[in-house]
């Protein structure tokens, strides 16, 4: 199972490259990969193999494992995802033109979606299930928005992800509650021994919200018709065979254990029936063939939800049969619409006429698929609907009647589809038809024929589908079995009645079109989103007034209140100091100077003085680290304080020199809040340190660092023992840097500064007249001559030129000696960044590009790739993700060399930090320079 999943992921990664190299013919080998899963699952599904499980220890120390499981239901879903998906991928090779610029990305996204869907049906772990669930959401967003230049496609993609993500978040809460109540996250174990209680009821309801939103069941059905803006293969795969089945699949998984939970039947049956009827009625009024099928799909999903959520074996047997039949006939019909659109240039049934005679093969395939959709005898759809009638006869008369009405609506829109696409219509001129190729027709014919052939062999499916329904209780229906023909009886009579009523509804199409619409689901969604946006704007306008001091005051008071509450709740507490004030007088003196610098920063009225004094306070803390015997922490603190000082200086160039005048009352409030926050933080920290009742984990760090091949405990902890934390923090840094860059450079791309003109003057000051304008100073820096003369400092340029390479070498020294001496990728990256900052301050923005002619984004991305590659490399040399290995060798000239693979991880951190510094210099340096230049030129501050 892991191998299949890996093959799907590898195919998704390779798909864009294949399409670029061999064009649309690349879809053929991709289809073979998808078909492999169907071939693997078909035999145990038909033959009755025992369920298979596979697990992978992710973080064994925390008891985190990934579990995969395949059983009869999983195998059928794999046959659908792999088999139907393979035919749809093959169809893509002739549906799209060879020159589609977005085709490589589309291929990767489509196969990636198949991988996510495969992982979803294989997951036996609630967390893993949710991960794959959301992956299908994200990938469907990308696929629906394929034609992003069209506003309709963007709106449809946004609507789909908003609704399904809302449901997914609700489901996440439900899964967490269910896992806690059951004491396990193994889905099979939970279903085998379901927990009970109020928390479980809430969990089940929340999970149903996610399942119904995914399957477009009322009240979440609005997104699927809008998703018809996607290309036809996407509609056939996601909205007929795969994604929309995910919610139904989850209902089927949980129903045997939780169908008796309070709230289950009203939600599942009520929403399912409403969806079946409302969407079926709407399909009778549509003129776009894809929209007609979309509403038909929503109606069928409601029908499947009723069957699989009813909680009895025969209904489940019918539900699984309809699920399989629907994947076959609806995919065939969507692909047929694609052929019609491809051949005629329209999907509007009012503009189509006589197409059936000119495309007889396509017409015949559409008839077979539509017959299965309507439940005509000798099709798989008929076998499923007969079982549905049997499931509710003798106990649920209302459900029988509602299912019959829903079936009549299905028959009605099936006829409307065939008539609209292929029949000759009076007054409508036949359109010019481009004959579809054999490879475009083949998937349609195969899927449509399968619905009939499998329907005739329905008795052969009784065993495999019966095994899927086995966990459901029988509830008095005896031993009903699937069959293509059960003889004359009430189910057959109901089928005939529904077909006759469907024909009558089709004949009354003009009358139905005149019935006024009570409401438009799309309008309801738009009003809801408009109301939400209005509320958000009003709330933001109330609490976000643009005052940073006020924001900080609220944050501090909230933190103080929560902390004091926790302290009072935990009374009595031990003595926070424990009789120990300091380890030596030097610490007291440094602490006193640190406090004095902080107090002076508070009293300063000048922004520059405040920055310098706050930096001095930070350097005082660094000195305390030195006195405490923590050189790594001290080095990092010194470097961060220095870098922060430069950042503040860059920002201060666009701010007034002095702080605005505040009233004594405001200053008093701010002083009191700051003092209270500082006192609270100090007390809480001391109490936390004195309240430990277990041995600190840090006691094991020395031995663990030695085992990892390092003598520097801090560096070893960061890149080895707690490398997961470092990897996550690195990704956060990269995302933050990219986010800031995107906001600042929203209206223009990030690029190298343009080549300076001969008359360029960077950082010029209007009020100053250059005294040495006629004298060209010596050129120590590549771009030094671009500075305004009054801003140049030969001494600074000489120093920058002299120390730059030495500082870079020192940064590499810190990087490569991290495992045996203070330093590391973080410290080395900051040192390298400071070297670049010196070049920038000495020579301006052009000099920065001369010093580092590389994109900050490229460095950030390279750093993440190196870290992720090192993490995965642990599987090769250590058997686990992020496991390190060490090599000792004696090399000529160099002598003994100790190499640890975690050094590669340090290199990734180094690249990320350098990229972050470059981002800061570009955003707070180069961009501010551009804005200042625009101000001086009288052009305002461009965006």
Could you please describe the fold and organization of this structure?
There is one protein chain. The chain is mainly alpha-helical. 69% of the residues lie in helices and 3% in strands. The chain is built from 36 helices and 4 strands. The strands form 2 sheets. Strands 1-2 form a two-stranded antiparallel ribbon. A hairpin with a 3-residue loop joins strand 3 and strand 4. Helix 8 packs antiparallel against helix 11 and helix 12 (264-283) packs parallel to helix 18. The protein is elongated and about 100 Å long. Mean pLDDT is 85; it is low at 765-777 and 939-943.
Which helices and strands, and how do they pair?
Layout: H1 2-22, H2 27-47, E1 52-59, E2 64-70, H3 72-95, H4 103-122, H5 126-144, H6 151-182, H7 187-192, H8 198-214, H9 223-226, H10 232-241, H11 243-258, H12 264-283, H13 289-309, H14 313-344, H15 355-358, H16 360-374, H17 380-392, H18 397-422, H19 438-456, H20 458-469, H21 490-507, H22 509-514, H23 521-543, H24 548-569, H25 585-603, H26 607-627, H27 631-652, H28 664-690, H29 701-707, H30 713-721, H31 723-744, H32 794-816, H33 825-843, H34 845-851, H35 856-877, E3 886-891, E4 895-900, H36 902-936
Antiparallel strand pairs: 1-2, 3-4
Helix pairs in contact: 1-2, 1-4, 2-3, 3-4, 3-10, 3-14, 3-19, 4-5, 5-6, 6-8, 8-11, 8-12, 10-14, 11-13, 12-13, 12-18, 13-14, 13-18, 14-16, 14-17, 14-19, 14-20, 16-18, 16-19, 17-18, 17-19, 17-21, 18-21, 24-28, 25-26, 26-27, 27-33, 29-30, 30-31, 31-35, 31-36, 32-33, 33-34, 33-36, 35-36
């Amino acid at each position: 199972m892991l191998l299949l999943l890996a093959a799907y992921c590898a195919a998704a990664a390779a798909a864009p490259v294949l399409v670029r190299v061999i064009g649309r013919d690349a879809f053929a080998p991709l289809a073979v990969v998808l078909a492999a899963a169907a071939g693997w699952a078909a035999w145990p599904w038909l033959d009755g193999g025992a369920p298979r499980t596979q697990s992978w220890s992710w973080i064994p120390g925390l008891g985190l494992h990934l579990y995969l499981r395949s059983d009869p239901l999983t195998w059928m879903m794999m046959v659908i995802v792999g088999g139907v998906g393979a035919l749809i991928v093959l169809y893509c090779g002739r549906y799209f033109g060879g020159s589609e610029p977005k085709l490589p990305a589309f291929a990767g996204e489509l196969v990636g979606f198949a991988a996510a869907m495969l992982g979803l049906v294989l997951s036996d772990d609630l967390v893993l299930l949710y991960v794959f669930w959301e992956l299908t959401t994200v990938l469907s967003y990308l696929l629906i928005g394929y034609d992003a230049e069209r506003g309709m496609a963007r709106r449809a993609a946004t609507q789909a992800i908003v609704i399904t993500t809302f449901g997914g978040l609700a489901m996440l809460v439900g899964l967490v509650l269910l896992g806690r109540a059951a004491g396990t996250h193994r889905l099979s174990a939970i279903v085998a021994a379901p927990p009970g209680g109020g928390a479980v009821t809430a969990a089940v309801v929340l999970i149903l919200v996610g399942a119904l939103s995914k399957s477009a069941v009322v009240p979440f059905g609005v997104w699927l018709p809008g998703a018809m803006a996607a290309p036809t293969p996407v509609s056939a795969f996601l909205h007929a065979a795969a994604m929309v089945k995910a919610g139904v699949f989850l209902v089927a998984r949980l129903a045997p254990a939780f169908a008796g939970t309070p709230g289950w039947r009203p939600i599942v049956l009520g929403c399912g029936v409403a969806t079946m009827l409302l969407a079926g009625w709407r399909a009778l009024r549509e003129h776009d063939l894809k929209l007609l099928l979309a509403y038909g799909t929503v109606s069928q999903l409601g029908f499947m939800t009723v069957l699989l959520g009813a909680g009895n074996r025969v209904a489940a047997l019918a539900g699984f049969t309809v699920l399989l039949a629907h994947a076959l006939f609806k995919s065939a019909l969507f692909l047929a619409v694609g052929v019609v659109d491809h051949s005629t240039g329209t999907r509007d049934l009012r503009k189509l006429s006589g197409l059936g005679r000119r495309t007889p093969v396509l017409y015949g395939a559409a008839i077979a698929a539509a017959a299965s959709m309507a439940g005509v005898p000798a099709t798989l759809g008929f076998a499923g609907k007969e079982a549905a009638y049997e499931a509710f006869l003798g106990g649920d008369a209302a459900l029988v009647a509602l299912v019959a009405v829903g079936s009549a609506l299905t028959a009605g829109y099936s006829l409307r589809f065939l008539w609209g696409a292929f029949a000759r219509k009076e007054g409508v001129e036949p359109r010019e038809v481009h004959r579809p190729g054999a490879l475009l027709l083949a998937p349609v014919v195969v899927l449509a024929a399968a619905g009939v052939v499998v329907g005739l062999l329905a008795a052969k499916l009784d065993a495999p589908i019966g095994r899927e329904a086995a966990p459901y209780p029988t509830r008095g229906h005896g031993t009903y079995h699937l069959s293509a023909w059960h003889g004359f009886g009430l189910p057959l009579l109901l089928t005939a009645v529904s077909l006759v009523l469907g024909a009558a509804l089709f004949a009354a199409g003009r009358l139905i079109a005149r019935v006024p619409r009570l409401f438009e689901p799309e309008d309801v969604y738009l009003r809801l989103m408009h109301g939400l946006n209005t509320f958000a704007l009003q709330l933001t306008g109330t609490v976000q007034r643009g005052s940073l001091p006020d924001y900080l005051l609220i944050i501090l008071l909230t933190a103080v209140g929560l902390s004091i509450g926790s302290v009072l709740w935990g009374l009595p507490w031990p003595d926070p100091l424990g009789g120990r004030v300091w380890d030596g007088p030097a610490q007291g003196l440094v602490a006193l100077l640190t406090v004095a610098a902080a107090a002076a920063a508070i009293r300063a009225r000048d922004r520059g003085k405040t920055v310098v004094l706050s930096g001095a306070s930070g350097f005082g803390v660094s000195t305390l680290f030195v006195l405490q015997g923590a050189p790594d922490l001290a080095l990092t603190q010194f470097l961060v304080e220095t870098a922060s000082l430069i950042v503040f200086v860059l920002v201060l160039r666009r701010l007034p020199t002095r702080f605005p005048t505040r009233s004594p009352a405001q200053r008093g409030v701010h002083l009191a809040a700051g003092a209270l926050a500082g006192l609270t933080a100090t007390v809480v920290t001391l109490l936390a340190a004195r309240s430990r009742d277990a041995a600190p984990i840090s006691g094991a760090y020395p031995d663990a660092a030695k085992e990892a091949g390092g003598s520097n405990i801090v560096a070893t902890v960061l890149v080895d023992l707690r490398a997961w934390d470092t990897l996550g923090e690195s990704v956060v840094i990269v995302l933050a840097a990219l986010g800031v860059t995107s906001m600042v450079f929203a209206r223009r791309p990030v690029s190298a500064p343009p080549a300076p003109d001969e008359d360029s003057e960077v950082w010029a000051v209007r009020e100053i007249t250059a005294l040495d304008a006629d004298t060209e100073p010596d050129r120590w820096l590549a771009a030094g001559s671009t500075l305004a003369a009054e801003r140049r400092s030969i001494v600074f340029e000489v120093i920058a030129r002299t120390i730059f390479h030495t500082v870079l070498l020192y940064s590499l020294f810190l990087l490569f000696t991290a495992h045996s001496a203070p330093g590391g990728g973080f410290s080395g990256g900051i040192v390298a960044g400071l070297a670049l900052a010196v070049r920038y301050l000495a020579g301006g923005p052009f000099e920065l590009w001369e010093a580092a002619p590389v994109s900050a984004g490229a460095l950030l991305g390279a750093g993440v790739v190196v870290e992720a590659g090192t993490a995965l490399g642990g599987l090769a040399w250590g058997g686990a993700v992020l496991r390190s290995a060490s090599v000792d060798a004696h090399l000529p000239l160099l002598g003994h060399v100790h190499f640890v693979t975690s050094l590669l991880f340090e290199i990734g951190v180094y690249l990320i930090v350098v990229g972050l510094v470059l981002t800061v210099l570009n955003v707070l340096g180069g961009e501010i320079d551009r804005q200042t230049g625009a101000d001086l030129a009288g052009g305002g501050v461009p965006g």
